[in-house]
Amino acid sequence: MSFRTRTKICGLTRPEDAAAAVAAGADALGLVFYPPSPRAVSPLQAADVVADVPAFVTLTALFVNPTAEQVQSVLDVVRIDLLQFHGDEDEAFCAQFNRPYIKAIRVRQASDVVASCVRFPGALAILLDSYKPGVPGGTGETFDWSLVPESDDLKPIILAGGLKPDNVAYAIERVKPFAVDVSGGVEAELDGVAQKGIKDHGKINAFLDEVYRVDANTRTISTRQHNN
Ligand SMILES: O=C(O)c1ccccc1N[C@@H]1O[C@H](COP(=O)(O)O)[C@@H](O)[C@H]1O
């Protein structure tokens, strides 16, 4: 039986980009509530971005070391299905909002992945991102995928960090994640300069087409995809 890799397009700031991601078949969309990020949106802007997103598309709110009040102020205004914590939050903090959550970690060694599955028993999945000193995420850089253990005992893995249409197929073959998450790799460029927060609809389509292609050609269900 074949396995379908789930997909999330993150860092959306415009309704038309959310619509393009939905039209291309993305399973989840991400909104960044981290003001230093060039992709950050306010709660009211976010509500506008996702206003026409249909049912069965998971809306994810990304935070980096927020206060509980900041998280709640988003939940009060925006339809959010899933929380994504990308900083140094602990399990108790992540679990307090009566919402499912995923925990992002920045991978430096294989033991980071195993340890995070133990430290965050309530997380629906662990998102693996690249480590870059002083940068909490969204670096646009890949990490050493050989650091992801092949264990079946891990929580579902969401692979992130520097994914793009050119490398996502190989990443899926190599890591066999539950899902892939992309932000910078599907952003627009103007004269070779990244337009952070603005998505290129052609790149979104190309990225998702690559996921569908590799799934159809190579993926079979393994124990890892059934975890939890
Ligand atoms: O996108 C950001 O600006 C950001 C800021 C702080 C933490 C995480 C951030 N982005 C998330 O990082 C991963 C990987 O992004 P990329 O594909 O390498 O650009 C993804 O989940 C982004 O949403």
From TrEMBL:
Name all N-(5'phosphoribosyl) anthranilate isomerase (PRAI) domain ranges: 8-209
EC annotation? 5.3.1.24
What is the enzyme's main class?
isomerase
SUPFAM superfamilies listed in its UniProt record: Ribulose-phoshate binding barrel
Task: Respond yes or no to whether keyword DNA-binding is given for this record.
Answer: no
Pfam families linked: PRAI
The record, for Gene3D superfamilies, names: Aldolase class I
Question: Pathway involvement?
Answer: Amino-acid biosynthesis; L-tryptophan biosynthesis; L-tryptophan from chorismate: step 3/5
What is catalysed by this protein?
A: N-(5-phospho-beta-D-ribosyl)anthranilate = 1-(2-carboxyphenylamino)-1-deoxy-D-ribulose 5-phosphate
What Gene Ontology molecular-function terms does this entry list?
Answer: phosphoribosylanthranilate isomerase activity
Listed A to Z, the keywords are:
Amino-acid biosynthesis, Aromatic amino acid biosynthesis, Isomerase, Tryptophan biosynthesis
Q: Which PANTHER family match?
A: N-(5'-PHOSPHORIBOSYL)ANTHRANILATE ISOMERASE (PTHR42894:SF1)
Q: Which family does it belong to?
A: Belongs to the TrpF family.
What protein name applies here?
N-(5'-phosphoribosyl)anthranilate isomerase
Tell me what organism the protein belongs to.
Bacterioplanoides pacificum
Report the gene name. Answer: trpF
